[in-house]
Amino acid sequence: MKKASITTLGLTPEEERRRRMIKYSVAMSVRMVCIVLMLFSRGWWLALFAAGAIVLPYLAVVIANTPLRTSRSVERPGGVVQVRPPADKGGDGSPGAERKAS
C-alpha cells in the first residue's frame, strides 16, 4: 500500500478561498468590460456583450464554487492497528497486585 504524503493533501481553506476569489474577480472583470463595450457597440455586437453581461454573474458563481480536484483518488494511510492495554493479572486492579500475590 502506498503511503500518504504531504503533497497528496488538499488545499487549505485559505488557499481554496483565495482561488475562488480570483476566479470570481476575473469573471466579474470580464463582465465589466462587456458592460463598457455595450456603450460603444451596435447590432449583434451589442446583443453579444449584453448576453455576456447578463450570463457572466451566474457562470462566475458556478465556476468559482466548483471544487478543484487534484487527484482522482484519495490516498489513505495504512490499516488501523488496534492496541489493547495488557490484561490485568492481579485481581484488585492495583499496580502492585501481581507482586503482592507472590
TrEMBL record:
Residues 86-102 have a biased composition (Basic and acidic residues). The lineage of its organism: Bacteria, Bacillati, Actinomycetota, Actinomycetes, Micrococcales. Residues 73-102 are annotated as: Disordered. It comes from Paramicrobacterium humi. This is DUF3099 domain-containing protein. The chain crosses the membrane at residues 21-40, 46-66. Keywords: Membrane, Transmembrane, Transmembrane helix. The keyword Nucleotide-binding does not apply. InterPro entries: DUF3099.
